[in-house]
Amino acid sequence: MKIYFFNRETGVYLGDEFANEAPMNRGVIVVPRGATTIAPPQGRLGYIVVFDIVTKRWEVRSQWDSENPRDNHPREISRIKCGVRR
Predict the structure, then answer these.
(1) Ramachandran region of residue 11, left (φ > 0), alpha (ψ -120 to 50) or beta?
(2) Which of 3-7, 19-23, 40-44, 72-76 reaches the highest mean pLDDT?
(3) What CA–CA distance (Å, rounded) separates 72 from 74?
(4) Which domain holds residue 14?
(5) H or E element at residue 13
(6) Does residue 5 surpass a pLDDT of 60?
(7) Radius of gyration over alpha carbons of the chain, in Å?
């Protein structure tokens, strides 16, 4: 069975590998922490694939948004300066 690794802090996709069988339990697949059997969606240029541990779903996020949290977004900064906040 194929497993998909993600960074446990950020959820960012790290790669895939085939899972090992448990040494003492034949037929039982070992899925380590920081991995899932749920296949990620296809990524594309300028986007990153992130696993949400709570919802157990993959998301495709803009690399800009990931590197520049909403509070640092230029439009958000101008709203804050004007006293308007979402």
Answers:
(1) left
(2) 3-7
(3) 6
(4) 2-81
(5) strand 13-18
(6) yes
(7) 18
Please give the full DSSP string across 32-55, using - where no structure is assigned: -TTEESSPPPPP-TTEEEEEETTT
Give the dihedral of Cα atoms 65, 69, 74, 80; nearest 10 deg: 140
* Portion of the chain with pLDDT greater than 90, in percent: 52
Short-list 17, 16, 4, CA closest to 56: 4
Beta bridge partners of residue 61, listed in sequence order: 48
Distance linking the first and last C-alpha atoms of the chain: 44
Is 86 a domain residue?
Answer: no
Contact criterion met (CB below 8 Å) for 31 and 6: no
Question: Considering its fold, how many domains does the chain have in total?
Answer: 1
> Does 13 fall in a domain?
yes
